[in-house]
């Protein structure tokens, strides 16, 4: 398992690779002695930097998030949402023949946020819902602003 950290506009992030796939993205900085550069991690860091610079909206990285089969189905649906677009928990639930609440729970358990774009999922009526990443809803709103996907009624800093 290799890890590599980067500074980003939403805080320090650490990307973890195992067996040639990204398995997590966490907030925080791993001490230098535990960091290891690999071609995949370098590619991930490059794509994240380009994402935050507004040069790309979606990622082209192999991912293998650990989770239940249902969670993996939800995360696969998230990966289908292009940058600049949003869906609701209910829309994802309907696709999976499920309910919105378990979809929201799976979103909150996403081990690779940003790359698997759980921030692109909103509650019914354009409400923000939740965000488990560092900074909570402010981080979710910042990512949606970056992608120009934030509904107009949500553009202000208040939640």
Automatic annotation (TrEMBL):
Entry keyword annotation includes Methyltransferase: yes
GO cellular component, one term: cytoplasm
Leading EC class: transferase
Intracellular or extracellular location(s): Cytoplasm
All residue ranges annotated as the Methylguanine DNA methyltransferase ribonuclease-like domain in the record: 6-64
Primary subcellular site in the record, as a coarse category: cytoplasm
Active-site residues per Swiss-Prot or TrEMBL entry: 118
Keyword terms of this UniProt record: Cytoplasm, DNA damage, DNA repair, Methyltransferase, Transferase
Molecular function terms from GO: methylated-DNA-[protein]-cysteine S-methyltransferase activity
Leftover remarks: This enzyme catalyzes only one turnover and therefore is not strictly catalytic. According to one definition, an enzyme is a biocatalyst that acts repeatedly and over many reaction cycles.
Reported function: Involved in the cellular defense against the biological effects of O6-methylguanine (O6-MeG) and O4-methylthymine (O4-MeT) in DNA. Repairs the methylated nucleobase in DNA by stoichiometrically transferring the methyl group to a cysteine residue in the enzyme. This is a suicide reaction: the enzyme is irreversibly inactivated.
HAMAP family according to UniProt: OGT
The family this protein is said to belong to: Belongs to the MGMT family.
Protein name in UniProt: Methylated-DNA--protein-cysteine methyltransferase
């Amino acid at each position: 398992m290799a890890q590599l950290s980067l500074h980003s506009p939403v805080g320090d992030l650490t990307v973890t690779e195992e067996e040639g796939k990204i398995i997590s993205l966490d907030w925080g900085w791993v001490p230098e002695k535990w960091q290891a550069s690999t071609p995949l991690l370098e590619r991930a860091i490059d794509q994240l930097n380009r994402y935050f610079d507004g040069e790309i909206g979606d990622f082209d990285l192999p991912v293998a998030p650990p989770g239940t089969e249902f969670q993996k189905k939800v995360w696969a649906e998230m990966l289908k949402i292009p940058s600049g677009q949003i869906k609701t928990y209910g829309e994802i639930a309907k696709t999976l023949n499920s309910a919105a609440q378990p979809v929201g729970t799976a979103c909150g358990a996403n081990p690779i946020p940003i790359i698997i774009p759980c921030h692109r999922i909103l509650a019914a009526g354009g409400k923000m819902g939740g965000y488990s990443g560092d900074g909570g809803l402010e981080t979710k709103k910042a990512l949606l602003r970056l992608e120009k996907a934030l509904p107009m009624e949500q553009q202000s800093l208040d939640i």
